[in-house]
Write a structure and sequence with these properties.
Number of helices: 0
Structural class: mainly beta
Shape: elongated
Strand content: 35-45%
Helix content: under 10%
Radius of gyration: 14 Å
Length: 71
Amino acid sequence: GSWPPAETDPPVDVLHYDIDIRFDEGFAFEATLQVDVRLLTDTVSEIRLDLDGPSVEEVTTRGRPLPHPGR
């Protein structure tokens, strides 16, 4: 990703990040990230997350699965 975001990024306001990371004895980890955003227009159909590193297993909104590149 790039900073600042490209003009093609959807207009959203990130309100809150909540990160929960659990490590095991071998220093492997599992994490959950919750990002609360406010859409600034009614035309947003996609939000790109700049994730580099560990794999993403699930993306949800209001408890419902959303498609993501890992699927």
